[in-house]
Amino acid sequence: MKKAEEGNLVLLFMDASHFVLGCDYLGYIYSRVRRFVRTFSGRKRYNVLGAIDYVTKRILTVTNDSYITATEVCDMLRKVASEYPGKTIHIILDNARYQKCAIVQALAKELGIILQYIPPYSPNLNLIERVWKFVKAELRSKYYDDFSAFQMKIDSIIESTSKGNLTKIKRLIGEKVQLFDDMKSVTENTFECSAKRQIHAA
Question: How far is CA 111 from CA 8, 62, 114, 173, in A?
Fold first, then answer.
């Protein structure tokens, strides 16, 4: 993070989010009588693979309404490489099969992109998860009955992360991230630090 802030490398956090129309974007109404809230009955899904720049908070995206696969991840790697030519690029991502397959790793090596995989079951270490939570919260303020309008709204919220909503995103993704400098590898995908060992010892 410090090297990224100093301009010595580009640090991106990458992950996919799946937005289902009419699924999870309603608020709550408290009432003594039964109320009916309009919602869309379909199951159309807008998939967004995003990579957020830790410094600028700009998000690059690859989207579709089917599935995120290794093909989309490769598209993202090419987009990242063209966006930051000649730069040292580190991408933090999880261990999803479509992100860790041989095709993706080979392309990353070819493009000179360093992929750094977080430990399993540790989504909190991927800071773009905070952005997806923010986007979903913004969606809850309106009823959508048109999939195109739904997509456009999501795109506009994502675009705002480095513009109108930059201050909010900086509060979500900034220096106040809990870091453990004394992490030691227990196995290939498991880590511990002295603080955890002390807790276990107690």
Answer: 18, 18, 9, 27
Number of H helices, E strands in the chain: 8, 7
Tokens, residue 74 = 């490769």
Cα-flanking dihedrals φ and ψ of residue 23, to 5°?
-95, -50
The DSSP symbol for 41 reads -
d(CA 77, CA 75): 6
User: What is the fold, at CATH topology level, of the domain defined by 2-177?
Assistant: Nucleotidyltransferase; domain 5 (3.30.420)
Full-model pTM = 0.79
Domain coordinates in residue numbering, the chain: 2-177
**Is residue 79 a contact partner of residue 62, using CB atoms and an 8 Å limit?**
yes
Question: Mutual orientation of helices 128-139 and 147-159 as an angle, nearest 10°?
Answer: 130
User: Could you tell me the two tokens for 108?
Assistant: 């990353």
pLDDT tens column, 79-134: 999 999 999 999 999 999 999 999 999 999 999 999 999 988 888 889 999 999 99
Residue 161 contacts residue 57 (beta carbons within 8 Å):
yes
Helices (H), the chain: 2-5, 70-83, 97-100, 102-111, 128-139, 147-159, 166-172, 194-201
Q: Quick one: which of 44, 45, 56 has its CA closest to 12?
A: 56
Helix (H, G, I), strand (E, B) or coil at 182: coil
